[in-house]
TrEMBL record:
Domain of life (superkingdom): Archaea
Start-end of Basic and acidic residues biased regions: 1-17
Annotated protein name in UniProt: RSAM target protein, CGCGG family
Disordered as annotated region, ranges: 1-30
UniProt organism field: Haloarcula pellucida
Pfam families: rSAM_target_put
InterPro entries found in the cross-reference section: rSAM_target_put
Length: 101
């Protein structure tokens, strides 16, 4: 079930000139896979070249390779390198998105 993304706070409102983590495992993320994808794109967009963002996704959608990798590669192509890091103790997943030129 999808809801209006306008009602959900942004994952970040700043450009990150360092490596950082984006929390995409709140209850609103569990209910809306499209929101996870949209906010993951936003997180990568707001990460400067040479840095990475750890995308921490909710367990409800399963392994992010099945729904997140393709949309990110479609948007960013060779500019983003995706690496699966681990499954969190809470059940979520961590994917490192490294941004290059």
């Amino acid at each position: 079930m999808s809801h209006a993304h306008d009602d959900t706070p942004s994952v970040t409102d700043e450009i990150h000139d360092n490596s950082w983590s984006a929390n995409l495992e709140g209850p609103e993320h569990a209910e809306d896979r499209e929101l996870v994808v949209a906010q993951a794109r936003e997180a990568v967009e707001k990460t400067t070249v040479g840095n990475h963002v750890n995308l921490v996704t909710h367990e409800a959608h399963g392994h992010p390779e099945t729904y997140l990798y393709d949309p990110l590669r479609e948007r960013f192509g060779e500019r983003v390198d995706l690496t699966y890091v681990d499954q969190c103790g809470c059940g979520g997943y961590v994917v490192r998105a490294r941004v290059s030129e």
